[in-house]
Each structure stands twice: as structure tokens, then as C-alpha cells.
Design goal:
Glutaredoxin, 2 domains, alpha+beta
Length: about 210
């Protein structure tokens, strides 16, 4: 048995976890999920039936990890030799932007896509303020940093980078110079390229 079982679908946020698994060289088995016929093993692990869901077969017991940002960090922690954790001085940046992308950016993009308008007097409750403020905040950081932690690629870039990459692709983020340059750097990574090629083949649109 592989060390990890990876429940995913190539047309989902599972693509983030897929990239992360390849970055650390994890020993994993794909468990592809048909939206119309979700396997009982997935529902047992995650009653919401969401992907990605990662099951870590650890000795005589299993650990279940859900939510793409959590999966990314969990893989970095369980594969320290991959060198994708921040050093002590960069932990603040690592966790700040990992959770900023998973929280305010995700919420801002979703709200905009849904056409939800936050009243001016409720912006504090929304958590992201406004779409423009959240986007400008990320743009400001990436305008002066090659990666989340400066010059060094870490696992946080898998998650933050996926948000930016998809945002540019699907036009949910504006076409900012900092976003484009950041995405281009990440697209050169071997694990990124391999993950995207496998997903294209799974979707049937590989060249």
C-alpha cells in the first residue's frame, strides 16, 4: 500500500494538492472521484465528499487531512528532506501568506464571482474588507518578493501560486505584472509541469 491515498478530480482544487505531492516526492495512490458517484471511502474519510482529501496511512492507523492549504503544509512537515519549510526568520511570512490566500483572497474572489456586495459598514465582518483591498495587498507583497518567503521557494508558494495561476487563467484576478511574473516563475518548476501534464491527460485534452 502507498503511504498516502489521494482523493481527487483533475477539475478541482485537487490540482493544488497534486502539485504539492509531487514537490515532496510523496508515495501516493490516486483515487479519482466521479462527481456523480463519490466512493464510500471518500465519504468515510470526509463526510462533505470534498476533494482534495488526503489519507495518510501511518503505521497501524490513518490520518485524514482536508483543505488544500492544510494538505500543502502537512506534506511539507511530513517530508522535511524536501526542503519546503521556511527557516525560523521566514515562518511569519510563510504562515501569513498561506492563510491570507486561503482566507481573504479565496473569500474575496468567491464573493466577486457570486456577485455578492458587502455593505460598507459590514466590511470588517467579511474578513477580506473588499476585493480590491485584498488583491492590492497581495500585489504589493509579490511586487517586491520573488516568492512568499523572499528569494526561497517554499510550500506556501504551491498554495499561493495556485491561487494566482488560476486567478489569471480564469480572470478572477486582475492581470497585474507581479502576478504574471510570479506565475511564470512557478510554471518553470518540474513538479508543476508534471502535475499539469498528468491532469491534462486525465481530462483527455493532452496534446
Amino acid at each position: 500500500m502507498a503511504e498516502f491515498t489521494f482523493f481527487t478530480n483533475p477539475m478541482s482544487r485537487g490540482a493544488i494538492a497534486h502539485w504539492a505531492l509531487l514537490e515532496v516526492g510523496a508515495d501516493f495512490e490516486y483515487a479519482f472521484v466521479d462527481w456523480g458517484d463519490k466512493p464510500q471511502a471518500l465519504l468515510d474519510a470526509n463526510p462533505m465528499g470534498k476533494v482534495p482529501t488526503l489519507v495518510h496511512h501511518h503505521g497501524d492507523h490513518d490520518h485524514v487531512v482536508t483543505e488544500a492549504a492544510a494538505i500543502c503544509h502537512y506534506l511539507a512537515e511530513t517530508h522535511p528532506d524536501a526542503g519546503l519549510l521556511p527557516n525560523a526568520h521566514k515562518k511569519a511570512d510563510y504562515f501569513r501568506w498561506l492563510f491570507f490566500a486561503a482566507g481573504p483572497i479565496e473569500a474575496a474572489v468567491t464573493s466577486k464571482a457570486m456577485g455578492w456586495e458587502v455593505p460598507d459598514d459590514k466590511r470588517g465582518m467579511a474578513g477580506f474588507g473588499t476585493y480590491e483591498l485584498a488583491v492590492d495587498t497581495l500585489d504589493n507583497w509579490l511586487s517586491s518578493h520573488d516568492y512568499v518567503c523572499g528569494k526561497t521557494f517554499t510550500m506556501a508558494d504551491v498554495y499561493v501560486g495556485s491561487q494566482v495561476d488560476w486567478g489569471l487563467m480564469f480572470k478572477s484576478l486582475p492581470d497585474r505584472d507581479s502576478f504574471k511574473a510570479y506565475a511564470e516563475r512557478l510554471q518553470q518548476r518540474e513538479a508543476y509541469r508534471k502535475a499539469r501534464a498528468i491532469e491534462a491527460e486525465q481530462r483527455g485534452d493532452a496534446a
